[in-house]
């Protein structure tokens, strides 16, 4: 594109009138060429971004057992925005912003490829039979709602999850999670709903949770011990608190 412009300018400036006249059509077409060049770049960008989301979804599907056929239309015969459970933005480049596959009898491990869906703001894989560790989703900084409850997920809650800085609701209840509650959850300034009920979490409750503006906090039916953090008595927005079936004591 630059070379065409350079040739046209040189012809306009040359002493030969014949060469100058030849340059005029090139300059006339130049705006159209520039427009096409720009559109081409946008198109390539759209294709690249769509491919990222496509590969992320296919990577997730690869590790999933699907006895009920919930993912039967997850094929290259249709755009992924038309796949079961997938929601996309309404304007180009049509990025995935929601994935809802609750109660579909899915099993297997949840692939961390979902962490490449960087436009995602809603992820609900609850009420299935997923097992293994929680996926690494730290790149999902637009994610607001994460429901992975009522599965068979195990191992620890990764600190990586606290990079999802826009989370408002986090439900990991009814799983097999172990270890302690990460104090860094207190950095999720937008979090108002936190449900970790019915896992195998141990240790003390981090006082950092008292920095949040929670309306619901459910930590019941775990193996938590120690004092209830004094900071909890400053959770003025709290409407529902559940701490039963642990080994907790009142602060002294």
CATH superfamily of the domain at 2-177: Ribonuclease Inhibitor
What spatial order of strands do you see in the largest sheet? 2-3-5-7-9-11-13-15
CATH top level label of the domain at 2-177:
Alpha Beta
* Average of per-residue pLDDT values: 86
Strand content: 15-25%
Structural class: alpha/beta
> Regions with pLDDT < 50 over 5+ consecutive residues?
1-9, 26-45
Order of helices and strands: HHEEEEEEEEEEEEEEEE
Share of residues in helices: 10-25%
What is the CATH architecture assignment of the domain at 2-177? Alpha-Beta Horseshoe
By DSSP, the count of extended strands is: 16
Largest sheet: 8 strands, mixed
Rg from Cα? 27 Å
CATH fold category name of the domain at 2-177: Leucine-rich repeat, LRR (right-handed beta-alpha superhelix)
The helix count comes to 2
User: What characteristic shape results from the CA principal axes?
Assistant: elongated
Helix and strand arrangement:
Layout: H1 2-13, H2 17-62, E1 64-65, E2 86-88, E3 96-100, E4 107-108, E5 122-124, E6 129-132, E7 145-147, E8 152-155, E9 169-171, E10 176-177, E11 193-195, E12 202-203, E13 216-218, E14 223-227, E15 240-242, E16 247-249
Parallel strand pairs: 3-5, 4-6, 5-7, 6-8, 7-9, 8-10, 9-11, 11-13, 12-14, 13-15, 14-16
Antiparallel strand pairs: 1-4, 2-3
